[in-house]
Amino acid sequence: MDSDTTEALVAAGIVRVRGTGRHARHVLRDVGLTVRRGEFAALMGPSGSGKSTLLNCLAGLDRPDSGTVRIGGTCLTNLDEAGRTAFRRENLGFVFQDYGLFPNLTVAENIELPARAAGSPVDPAWRQALLARTGVREWTDRRPGTLSGGQQQRVAIARALLTRPRVVIADEPTGALDTVTSAQVLRLLRGMVDEFGQTVIMVTHDPVAAATADTVHFLAGGTIVETVAGATARTLALRLSDPVDAA
Prior knowledge:
Layout: E1 7-18, E2 25-36, E3 40-44, H1 51-58, E4 66-71, E5 74-75, H2 81-91, E6 92-96, H3 107-118, H4 124-134, H5 149-161, E7 167-171, H6 179-196, E8 199-203, H7 207-210, E9 215-220, E10 223-229, H8 233-240
Parallel strand pairs: 3-8, 3-9, 6-7, 7-8
Antiparallel strand pairs: 1-2, 1-4, 4-5, 9-10
Helix pairs in contact: 3-5, 5-6
């Protein structure tokens, strides 16, 4: 699994334009980004800075107008829609703010769904270890609607990790949670990075959440204006409020 490189994801020259002619607006401008294997990276920026669009391009959910995104030895931007869908099933895990669970499926069925969709066998030992580590083992026969928001997010994290993906994409994973539950979810994501070497890329507006990451990339005006490592929540909050970000 990419034993010859320490890079999990490399994006170069990413440009995304919305609209045409005089109504065209550059959402992303020549964005470059490298995320190492086993790194927890966060994307931050004010509303409209392009962070969610960038995350979608990195995950192959959106196709940039120019530039490349490579995960492992695969260039996502060279794949058609069907190819990107197949790649995501086998190589990416997703955690969303709204959990993205199917209400008519049990917790166990939700967790195993990506593997089943990809036609991949489920490793029973890994499944049991994952259920224990995420704390969802006793809920496997329940439906998502009977669980709290924090519990549902734990299920979503277990689902994202079941196939041992190259990269986990987390879009505002604590945005719908209270402070205590958010901290629990962030500790879980951090633990997956530290204990299992999982690569995580997270979009967040919350400096406390971003401080959990190894590296934080600040976006403004559709480009990355600064990258910091090991920052505290207070430092990130101050940086986010810097007037230069509003440019």
